[in-house]
Known about the structure:
It is a single chain. By secondary structure, the chain is an alpha+beta fold. It has a single domain, classed as Hotdog Thioesterase (Thiol Ester Dehydrase, Chain A). It is about 25% helix and about 40% strand. The protein has three helices and eight strands, in the order βααββββββαβ. It has a six-stranded mixed β-sheet, covered by helices on one side. A two-stranded antiparallel ribbon has the order 6-7. A hairpin with a 7-residue loop joins strand 6 (about 115) and strand 7. The longest helix has 18 residues, at about 25-40.
Amino acid sequence: MLTNTYRTRIEWGDCDPAGIIFYARYYDIFDAxxxxxxxxxxxxxxxxxxxxxxxxxxxxxxxxxxxxRPTRFGDEVVIETAVAACERSSFKIEHRxxxxxxxxxxxxxxxxxxxxxxxxxxxxxxxxxxxxxVARLTQGGSASLS
Length: 146
């Protein structure tokens, strides 16, 4: 399955007054890492791939995380993101966020391939992931993005 490495720094706005990251900010980091992985796999940025494949988004429908050690303002972290499974209209992602080589957080996501519901434009509707996308997500390989 596809893997990607994404690097980022913990910023002041990510942290509580003590300078320790607020746990919910990890989900923002994971979202950015997922998008970076898809951009790398598809060879285009998110705006371009939304248009190219004529879909609305890949919204999060399930998530969880395991917090092992804190990160703080100024820490440089590495997130290894991997496709764990690709199903008809959903895909599962695993994230491993490390600090200085030590595992700090494990994150898990399930996302769906969604279009605007043709019967109600205010709603989303899952649709099958295009075969080309499935092939790119399930290929062996890795990439790195800073």
